[in-house]
């Protein structure tokens, strides 16, 4: 999911809508905005579909006045799937004795089932099936006297991965879990004498509203921001060694964002360079599977000296296939979204570079399309190691049994996909590309890489209860 908040500019909700539009790649099922105005109080709008189709109409935006607003774009990793329940669309709102608060959450709470059971037993009335709603109910039960302190209480009970943007009547709040699995950045907007504050999942959404990047919210940090006092930093959690999601580097974040002081585009290009060194092959053409494979393909072509070409053309009006939550839509998606550039492909030995193989359905279809177009050979090079484990921290990978790499070796996958060769980047190569010159520190990895390594930095309690085996 994507989260965004703005404090201290007129009609903050308009800026939030733009920010969410720039974060649309993080969630395409639904979006929501809550705003606060001193005269009109809290208002909210939650809708299925793209930001641009909802939060551009004056009918909606006029209902969201005020200098403070937060928003969320959703893709379901917990709770209902797809566009079925508007009650699961964030931000969530709660009314407390000291006033209202709204929260928007990116990540996954790994002990949500246990928390929900306990809260319901003690009288909480849940409105949604979302794991994130637990935070509101835990806040309601806290005995602290102000809302940020109640949030601290609540989040100390929550396990898993979370970046949170929240608001009270006067404050904008941002939090990252102690491992800092999901991103969150702070920005500044407007002329110096009259400027406001911005929180965003990624820096690309600061750019769209002309905000200046200030810094990342640190793992385990909570910032409480008000117009009067500026940014106050708190440390509610026990300090841990950060484990940022390495898959944000490979796929999830936008390439024009900066993560950990490093360009995501540059990291992805470097993945291609590493891949070309680790798994060279003689061929005539390097093609990306657009758009997610593009920077790595550029790096691969550069390093190998094999010409780069657009052998597959993407229809710009389709979304990301995997964010479509049902298998049936996903299956259709490939053809609706990608087409082969026959004139370029015919007779050539083609290297296809993609970000990941999950179920293998995309890769199989693409291989068929490329061979139909008359390619002489097809070689797959994948910008991540084999995805052999599900993510429980906010990326929607399917159950373990459906992951190709969970049941097959690399050679079996090659045969299943029907390609001439298939190679994945090594974990070390991926770490090097992400700026870790010495590769992965196996005794204390610098990132979360559980979907590749099976080493989960937070025990997925709910899943273990449901029978998941580590
Ligand atoms: P599949 O192998 O399941 O057909 O799909 C792989 C494609 O889905 C990749 O090219 C990638 O663009 C996209 N994808 C990337 N990450 C994920 C993920 O975590 N889960 C799923 N289901 N698809 C992903
Ligand atoms: Fe990211 Fe994979 Fe860890 Fe999930 S399991 S947080 S996708 S690295
Ligand atoms: Mg892809």
TrEMBL record:
[4Fe-4S] cluster binds at residues 245, 391, 448, 451. It catalyses: 5-phospho-beta-D-ribosylamine + L-glutamate + diphosphate = 5-phospho-alpha-D-ribose 1-diphosphate + L-glutamine + H2O. The active site is at residue 1. Its EC number is 2.4.2.14. Residues 1-228 form the Glutamine amidotransferase type-2 domain. SUPFAM superfamilies: N-terminal nucleophile aminohydrolases (Ntn hydrolases) (SSF56235), PRTase-like (SSF53271). Keywords: 4Fe-4S, Glutamine amidotransferase, Glycosyltransferase, Iron, Iron-sulfur, Magnesium, Metal-binding, Purine biosynthesis, Transferase. It is an enzyme of class 2 (transferase). Mg(2+) binds at residues 292, 354-355. One of its GO terms (molecular function) is amidophosphoribosyltransferase activity. PROSITE patterns: GATASE_TYPE_2. Its cofactor is [4Fe-4S] cluster; Mg(2+). Pathway: Purine metabolism; IMP biosynthesis via de novo pathway; N(1)-(5-phospho-D-ribosyl)glycinamide from 5-phospho-alpha-D-ribose 1-diphosphate: step 1/2. Binds 1 [4Fe-4S] cluster per subunit. It holds the Pfam family GATase_6. Catalyzes the formation of phosphoribosylamine from phosphoribosylpyrophosphate (PRPP) and glutamine. NCBIfam families: purF. In the C-terminal section; belongs to the purine/pyrimidine phosphoribosyltransferase family. This is Amidophosphoribosyltransferase. It comes from Pseudodonghicola flavimaris.
């Amino acid at each position: 999911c994507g989260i965004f908040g703005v404090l201290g500019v007129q009609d903050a909700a308009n800026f939030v809508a733009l920010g969410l539009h720039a974060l649309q790649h993080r969630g395409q099922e639904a979006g929501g905005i809550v705003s606060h105005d001193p005269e009109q109080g809290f208002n909210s709008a939650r809708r299925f579909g793209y930001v641009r189709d909802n939060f551009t109409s004056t009918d909606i935006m006029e209902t969201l006045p005020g200098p403070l607003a937060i928003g969320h774009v959703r893709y379901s990793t917990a709770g209902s799937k797809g566009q079925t329940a508007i009650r699961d669309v964030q931000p969530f709102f709660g009314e407390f004795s000291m006033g209202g608060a709204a929260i928007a959450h990116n990540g996954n709470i790994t002990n949500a089932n246990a928390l929900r059971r306990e809260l319901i037993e003690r009288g909480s009335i849940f409105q949604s099936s979302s794991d994130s709603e637990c935070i509101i109910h835990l806040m309601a039960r806290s005995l602290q006297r102000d809302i940020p302190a109640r949030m601290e209480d609540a989040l100390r009970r929550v396990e898993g991965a979370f970046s949170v943007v929240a608001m009270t009547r006067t404050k904008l709040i941002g939090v990252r879990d102690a491992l800092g699995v999901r991103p969150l950045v702070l920005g500044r907007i407007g002329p110096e004498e009259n400027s406001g504050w911005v929180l965003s999942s990624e820096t690309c959404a600061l750019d769209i509203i002309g905000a200046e990047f200030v810094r990342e919210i640190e793992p385990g940090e909570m910032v409480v921001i008000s117009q009067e006092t500026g940014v106050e930093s708190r440390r509610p959690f026990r300090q841990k060694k950060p484990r940022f999601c390495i898959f944000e580097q490979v796929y999830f974040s936008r390439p024009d964002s900066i993560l950990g002081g490093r360009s995501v585009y540059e990291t992805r290009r470097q993945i291609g360079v590493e891949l070309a060194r680790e798994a060279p092959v003689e061929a005539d053409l390097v093609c990306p599977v657009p758009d997610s494979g593009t920077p790595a393909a550029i790096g691969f072509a550069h390093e190998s000296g094999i010409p780069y070409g657009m052998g597959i053309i993407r229809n710009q009006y389709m979304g990301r296939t995997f964010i479509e939550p049902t298998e049936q839509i996903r299956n259709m998606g490939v053809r609706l979204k990608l087409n082969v550039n026959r004139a370029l492909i015919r007779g050539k030995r083609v290297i296809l570079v993609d970000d990941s193989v999950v179920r293998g359905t995309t890769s199989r279809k693409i291989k068929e399309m490329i061979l139909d177009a008359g390619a002489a050979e097809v070689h797959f090079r994948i910008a991540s190691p084999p995805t052999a484990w599900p993510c429980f921290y906010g990326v929607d990978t399917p159950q373990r049994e459906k992951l190709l790499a969970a049941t097959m070796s690399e050679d079996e996958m090659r045969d299943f996909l029907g390609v001439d060769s298939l190679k994945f980047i090594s974990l070390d190569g991926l770490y090097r590309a992400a700026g870790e010159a010495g590769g992965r520190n196996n005794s204390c990895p610098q990132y979360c890489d559980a979907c590749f390594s099976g080493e989960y930095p937070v025990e997925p309690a709910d899943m273990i209860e449901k029978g998941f085996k580590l």
